[in-house]
Amino acid sequence: TKQQQQQQQQQQHRKKHRHHRKVNMSKDIKNNNGDGNDGPKKVDNMLRLPSNAELIEGAGKVTMDEPQMWGRGIVNDIKRTVGTHWVEEMTNFNQKTIAVTFLVFISVIAPTLTFGAVYGKATENNIGAIETIIATAWVGVVYSLIGGMPTCIVGSTGPVLAFSTVIYNMSKSLDVPFLTFNAWVSVWLFAYTLIAGFFDLTRYVRLATRFTDEIFALLIVSIFVMDAIGDPFSDVGLLHYMNPDHASHTELEEEDPNYAYISSGFLSVILGLGTTSLIFFFRGFRHSPFFCNDGIRTSIHDFSVTLSVVVWTLVRELIFEHVETESLSVPDEIEPTFACCDSSCNTFFPDDCEGQAEAAGTRSWLVDFGDLNGKNWIPIMAAAPAILAFVLCYLDNGITWHLINHKSHNLKHGEAYNYDLCLNGFFNFVNGLLGLPWLVATTVPCIIHLNALADKDRDGNFLEVQETRLTMFFSHLMVGLSLLVLNVLKLLPLPVLYGVFLFMGLSSLPNIQFWNRFLLFFQQPSKYAKNCYTEHMEKRRIHMYTILQIGFFALVFLVQNLKAIAIIFPLMTLLCIPARLYLLPYFFEGWELLLLDGEDESIEQWTEAREESVRMYEESKRLSSMESSSDSADE
Fold it and tell me: Rounded distance, CA 144 to CA 81, Å?
């Protein structure tokens, strides 16, 4: 019949079509493989699901930015940041600005005074608490006005303190005044930062990936947690108050014969842990149903640190007023720490002149560059230690800046590595001229500042950050003004500030992927949080990567805590960058490194390619099944 003839014609047409397609595929195979014997690539690609390594070419590779030589990097940094967003960042005042200002002030003033006391011991009072407060205040205020990345807080750090101790010991060996030698090192340090900015050397820091960033971040967080709870390498922390030989007990026993160390120690632990707990309690109201509107909940969340400090300080003063606890060590007057036995000011009062009734005066605020004790070669010789000082500042600043400016934080106002490095060199040059300590970007206060300014979802992902200069300006202005109310600062119990430190460390941990992967060792695999690497990688491979990262963390942690070699801690951190670039690719495929260590945009691109390949594979299977059914029907 006519209908049967049409069906036969359609069957012949389909057979011819399948024949032509097979012929074309054979030609493609030969064109792609040279001959038909090396394996049908295109046929395989059509009939199999592409492997993870085939989804994105060059996955997991780290590339360096194009160099911006001859000062173009500095100019572009200024245009991109200060030149574009300055007015907006100086005028976006709101309630959050006030709350974050108090938080940053509390986060900065305690370590500033602590570092000042340690500087006094390490430099025989050439630098002390007053100098540390002044340096932190003026650098913070000026940087907030002209700096390129005002989200980053500047302050004293342990590695810089360790290096200052080395400079002091060198000056003693060379028999030249410490402040003069330190000033000449500061001159060379400024010169090196200008050279680095001029030739865009900061681009090497930007080779750091999440692998290095999170080792450094977890290291700094661990320092804050240990300093709050009890540092095994020192007598700092809440648990050390339970030790009858703690230095604070000795001082208080001299003032009060009835002093009981166990009461003071137990109260100190309660004050510290209570402060931390109350901060988290207040912050929990942000997404709770309590109170009548979102404005009140937001206010309680924003002022949680300030409220907790006030509450537990009042508990100490009103309820336990008869129990002594350690308070902040605050100087009595605003003057240079170094008091002189005589007009030459080469000896310290009262240690070097015990029979003298009062000091002859204090050192000058301006350092005498010519006071070289006849060694006129010192200005040239200072260039050598300044190289290590530059490496220290370069890494301390660069790694912290890189961590804060990670793309997952959604900062929109740009980076200014070269410009800010030059600024930091200038600030430290001025500090050297005035006999003040060097300052660099401080990691944990930077993280606290960033998190406080951010709006996040319930999972802790950054939605938006209020990028402002006002919080840093006002908080560091308050640090400077605190010199006028030193007696008020003495009312703050040190255990309460330890509680704030503990909050800083614990609140930063959930945002560190390294920490979250470490916790996977103790979790049921079926209960792992859903993310790119837990869904697509074998758990054995995830754990292997984490173990390698723990090894590098342990190495950096060990160097940082051994005083004899602590000064090379930034260099050990720097070694994590080539380890990631050249060592890890021997153990992991590129796509695995991408999921564990890549930028969010690249991970999203890989995930989309994966989903698309699965969709196309399922579609090709469906079409193949339909053709098979059609062939069976034809037969």
Answer: 12
Half-sphere exposure of 47 (CA within 13 A, CB side): 8
For residue 425, which of 392, 472, 447 has the smallest C-alpha distance? Answer: 392
What is the Cα–Cα distance from 396 to 570, expressed in whole angstroms? 7
pLDDT of residue 12: 54
Q: Taking a C-beta distance cutoff of 8 angstroms, is the pair 508, 225 a contact?
A: no
Secondary structure of 348-382 in HEC code, one letter for each residue: ECCCCCCCCCCCCEECCCCCCCCCCCCCCCHHHHC
Rounded to whole angstroms, how far apart are CA atoms 259 and 265?
Answer: 11
pLDDT at 634: 57
- Three-state SS across 17-52? HHHHHHHHHHHHHHHHHCCCCCCCHHHHHHHCCCCH
**What would the two tokens of residue 347 be?**
């000896």
Comparing CA positions, the residue from 536, 5, 96 lying closest to residue 295 is 96
3-state SS class at 454? strand
Q: Residue 35: pLDDT above 60?
A: no
Asked whether the beta carbons of 97 and 474 are under 8 A apart, the reply is: yes
What pLDDT was estimated at residue 8?
55
Closest CA to 109 of 450, 481, 433: 481
**Residue 509 near residue 447 (C-beta atoms within 8 A):** no
Q: Name the one residue in this structure whose structure tokens are 């300044």.
A: 386
Tens of pLDDT, residues 353-375:
777 777 778 888 899 999 898 89
Query: 90: Cβ–Cβ under 8 A, 6 or more apart, which residues?
Result: 468, 469, 470
Q: How large is the average pLDDT for residues 482-503?
A: 85
Kindly report each contact of residues 333-337 with a partner whose C-beta sits within 8 Å and lies 24 or more positions away, as own/partner: 334/130, 334/483, 335/130, 335/362, 336/128, 336/130, 336/131, 336/362, 336/363, 336/364, 336/365, 336/435, 337/120, 337/125, 337/126, 337/127, 337/128, 337/129, 337/130, 337/131, 337/362
Whether the CB-CB separation of 438 and 131 falls below 8 Å is answered with no
Q: How far apart are CA 414 and CA 403, in angstroms?
A: 14
Model confidence at 43: pLDDT above 80: no
Give pLDDT tens digits for 204-254: 888 888 898 888 888 878 888 888 898 887 788 899 889 888 888 887 777
Q: Is the dihedral of CA 572, 574, 576, 581 positive or negative?
A: negative
In this model, does residue 7 exceed pLDDT 70? no
What is the predicted pLDDT for the residue at 567? 67
User: What tokens were used for 134?
Assistant: 């002044």
Handedness of CA 228, 570, 559, 159 (dihedral sign): negative
